[in-house]
Design goal:
With 186 residues, the chain is an alpha/beta fold. It is 29% helix and 27% strand. Strands 1, 2, 3, 4, 5, 6 and 7 form a 7-stranded mixed beta sheet that branches. A hairpin with a 2-residue loop joins strand 2 and strand 3. It starts with 9 loop residues before the first strand and ends with a strand.
Length: 186
């Protein structure tokens, strides 16, 4: 998504534990996880480098759905989403290495699924696609056939609100910064 939007960057995975704290609102969790990812990656980057961290969660009935723990959990999540509208929250954090937070924001998008039958859920879970996705689905993949409405940023549902990232970086982009490749912690 970032390359399609004209960004030049390197990817460095972070190794944080993505675990919601008791009573933590989902938007705050997404921002905190994005911050932790960006800070961890920034600590090993050259000083002055920009590092972008991001994290996405799905929320329905007040329950925050991260990545499913396995097939049974994915099935449970898809049953919860079937025929209903849920929220997708993505937190982004932009850090200037080694650890100066430039921005900490989030985007929210509303997604509606059509009713899914048990065979559709079983077949989708068996495809393996939902097993590493927040809310157990990839809107850009096979699950595109489940979505009847999106209100907000489509790219947020994919996992990164590109317009928000651009709006965040835009004031920081100058001749010196354009010559650098930002690191991306995901």
């Amino acid at each position: 998504m970032l390359r399609n939007a004209g960004f030049d960057f390197d990817v460095q995975p972070s190794h944080i534990v993505e675990e919601i704290q008791p009573g933590e609102p989902p938007e705050e969790f997404a921002r905190r996880a994005a911050r932790e990812k960006a800070m961890q990656v920034a600590a090993s980057c050259p000083a002055g480098s920009f590092v972008l961290g991001a994290d996405t969660v799905v929320v329905i009935d007040g329950e925050t759905l991260g990545k499913p723990s396995g097939q049974q959990d994915a099935t449970r999540m898809l049953r919860l989403l079937s025929g209903r509208t849920h929220q997708v929250h993505t937190g982004i954090c932009l850090v200037r290495a080694p650890g100066e937070i430039e921005a900490l924001k989030h985007e929210t998008t509303f997604v509606t699924f059509r009713e899914l039958d048990e065979e559709e859920i079983r077949s989708y879970v068996e495809s393996g696609e939902p097993l590493d996705k927040a809310g157990a689905y990839a809107v850009q993949g096979l699950a595109s056939r489940f979505v009847t409405r999106i209100s907000g940023c489509y790219f947020n549902v994919v996992g990164l609100p590109v317009a928000l990232v651009y709006e965040t970086l835009k004031p920081l982009l100058n001749a010196e910064v354009r010559s650098q490749k930002p690191e991306v912690g995901r």
